[in-house]
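User: I would dearly like some help making sense of a protein record. I have put the entry right below:
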Amino acid sequence: MRDDVFSAGILSMAGPVEFVCGIWKFVHEAGGGSRCRSLPGHLLHLVLEGHYQLRTNKREYAIRPGDVIYYHETEDVEWLGNQERVTFLSVGFSASKLPPLPLDMRVFPSDGVIRKNFHALYEASLLSDRTERNFKVFSALLAVLGHIQEKKHAFSSASEEENSSWWRLEDRLRRERRFRPMLEELAEMAHCSKAGIVRNCRRATGQSPMSRIRQLRMEEAKGLLRFSTLNITQIAEYLGYPRVNEFSRDYSNYFKHPPSREDV
């Protein structure tokens, strides 16, 4: 009698999603526009009904039922108004190792797989049993993300490695709290030329490196002013400004109002 021999690899891996921040169903009645910022981390919307105009990342979109909308970290979101009720499902999650979607895939039409799993995700979030809820939420979310990754390979026109290179650098800047680096420093950190940094940043974000860094710095400043106990002088120092009046001028030029308006 012959014994069959099986071999198996030993895998050591971690899931891409660290935790889910929230799952919601929003209803936006017909009305005028509004402005806000997206949540930190990754945020996905699935539009169920209604049409509206959206502006984000310096691009304008005509949103329709079935569209998927994606945001990364805290991005400016400008709702330009809608003439009818808009309903959408939303999920926010942390996945620090997951690269953001490219700018040309921030809004795209869903398909049956994404819609089915997005609805399963929302239904799972309503379950009363915590263990069952956690299993089904993560299962449905990973199914959504896995299918989006498949679409991404066919949809994206940018180099994945160059995009990832910039997002890794940006993540390091956030972690090390380096909010005022020079272009030469960025090139040294990324081990590439200054031209390479400019190219990678523009492909990943649609902005120049200095514009993107300024955006990160101002977003951090606004968050600290609104939610921390630091005063304006301490925030200026935290962000690397040698003088508080320089920070105030930079903030006022960016947001069109002084930082003192936020510090209330």
Summary: The chain has a mean pLDDT of 87. Helices lie at 112-125, 130-155, 160-176, 183-190, 194-205, 209-227, 232-238, 244-255. The longest helix spans residues 130-155. The domain at 19-155 is CATH 2.60.120.280 (Jelly Rolls).
